[in-house]
Amino acid sequence: MTDLIGIATWNFREGTLAERIDRFAAIGYNAVSLNTIHARPLARGEMPEVDDAISRHRLPVTIHGGLSPKGEPIPHDAIIAEFRSYAEWHARTGLLVSINFDAAKRQTDTGAWEMACDEMRDILAEMLSISNGAGFTVGIEDWPRNAEDLRFVEDLRAYPHYGMLIDLGHLNMRIRKSDDPDHPFSIDAAREYLDQMALPVNELHIHNNDGKGDLHAPPTTGTSDLRAIADLLASTGKLASRGVKCVSTIELVPAWCGLTDEQGWVAARDALTFWRNVTAR
């Protein structure tokens, strides 16, 4: 189903980033994901040791960032400048596969939070125009999530590199909001959730939880049946809708799920083995 399995490098603290990338490659990961804290200086040429580690292992890279983490207006010019630097890094290396952002939210006059759909649409339109034909995909995590959201981006779907990141840990929590989190996992509810996300998939975030809190636990530790979800994704062909590689990124946070640093490395190795086995086609 997917031959690229990466890991969210920012959740591990032992050693330098370059050393961690070497260690992940030694475990068997054939892709890595960087957050913008690391991707910004990398693209500016300020992290040559990281650039070297990625290049030596020829690791495809995904970048994950935020558009408006605290609900303030999206800093459009700064993000576009940053985006251009990533495109330039890719032009030099050919290793960027996808850039995906956390969805932006805004607070209404009543204090409620809602998706900043029009702002996201505008900045996506510029990003997609800049990167058209560049060879990497662009999208937002878990957005658009339904038919109402899709109307904001209908014209953007003409870009073949426009897609989305789907977080499978968040899927588990969202489908259980109206259900008892302790009930057996409902693959039918997961199918309905995924069916509403009508864009191609750029990247998956793989982690598990108890349906109540965002634990970012190993894929076999929690109430979500990720083996069943892998089968569902394969049977629907959702990951192969345009011939673009989808990266599966293990988004494990050892500290959040009660693991020591060393246990986290063991869990990272086991998560890779698990996901590789359940997605083998």
Describe the model:
This protein is of the alpha/beta class and 281 residues long. The chain has one domain: Divalent-metal-dependent TIM barrel enzymes (TIM Barrel, Alpha-Beta Barrel), CATH 3.20.20.150. The protein contains 10 helices and 10 strands. It has an 8-stranded parallel sheet. α2 packs across α4 (76-93). It is globular, with a radius of gyration of 18 Å. The mean pLDDT is 93.
What do we call the CATH topology? TIM Barrel
Helix content: 40-55%
| Mean pLDDT over all positions | 93
Query: How many discrete structural domains?
Result: 1
Question: Class by helix and strand content?
Answer: alpha/beta
**3D shape:** globular
- Count of individual helical segments: 10
In what range is the share of β-strand residues? Answer: 15-25%
Per CATH, the superfamily is: Divalent-metal-dependent TIM barrel enzymes
Q: What Rg do the Cα atoms give? A: 18 Å
Number of strands: 10
Task: Give me the side-by-side strand order of the main sheet.
Answer: 1-10-9-8-7-4-3-2
Distance from N terminus to C terminus (CA atoms, Å) equals: 6 Å
Return the CATH class.
Answer: Alpha Beta
Strand count, sense and closure of the main sheet?
8 strands, parallel
Supply the CATH architecture: Alpha-Beta Barrel
Runs in which pLDDT lies below 50 for 5 or more consecutive residues are none
> What letter string, H or E per element, gives the SSE order?
EHEHHEHEEEHEHEHHEHEH
Summed up:
The chain is of the alpha/beta class and 281 residues long. Helices cover 40% and strands 17% of the residues. It has a single domain (4-278), classed as Divalent-metal-dependent TIM barrel enzymes (TIM Barrel, Alpha-Beta Barrel).
